[in-house]
Specification:
This protein is an alpha+beta fold and about 180 residues long. The chain has four helices and six strands. It is elongated, with a radius of gyration of 22 Å.
Length: about 180
């Protein structure tokens, strides 16, 4: 059961990371974490070439450590598909977070629902693996049919708890996205 719980927690953590990358009306450093920058001859995460800060509710700043990659960081943010328009000021890049349109909010809510469905599929996959292992143990003669039934019920109860957590996280994210 501990292994199943750990794997289901992993699915929730993955969903948290996916949701962090979805833009709501507020500035969050997590918004720029997936951005990759062409620097030093390879693609590196933005967090390896500068630090991200939130000086105000609708503004992000990136303090680039090496002046030579400021242009590459600015380009990477602009080309990230997040709809952001950065402006360089020396080694600091200011990234204003524009107000979301109703159409964009609906699009983000649909993306959040897709991420949540993927997390539910992952949780159900863990459930299937757990039930399959208990059935395999029964075939080997390690446990009885009653034990398999008990395990299956416990695994289903655990799965239901995690699916509810995913639904709650989705409801919170949708509320955050729809908030004007």
């Amino acid at each position: 059961m501990d292994d199943l719980t750990r794997r289901m927690d992993g699915a929730l953590e993955s969903l948290r990371r996916d949701f962090a990358g979805l833009r709501s009306g507020r500035a969050s450093p997590a918004l720029l974490e997936p951005v990759r920058v062409e620097a030093y001859g390879s693609e590196v995460p933005l967090t390896q070439v500068g630090s991200i800060a939130v000086p105000e509710a609708r503004m992000l700043t990136v303090q680039v450590w090496d002046r030579a990659v400021v242009g590459a960081v600015e380009r990477a943010i602009r080309d990230s598909g997040l709809g952001l328009n950065p402006a360089a000021d020396g080694q600091v890049i200011r990234v204003p977070i524009p107000q979301l349109t109703e159409e964009r909010r609906n699009e983000l809510a649909r993306a959040a629902a897709r991420y949540a469905e993927g997390a539910k599929v992952a949780v159900r996959g863990v459930r299937r693996d757990g039930i399959d292992k208990s059935k395999a143990s029964e075939k080997k003669g390690d446990i009885s049919q009653d034990d398999v039934k008990t395990w299956s019920e416990a695994i289903q109860k655990l799965t239901d708890q995690y699916v509810k957590k995913v639904d709650d996280m989705l409801a919170d994210k949708e509320r955050e996205i729809k908030q004007v």
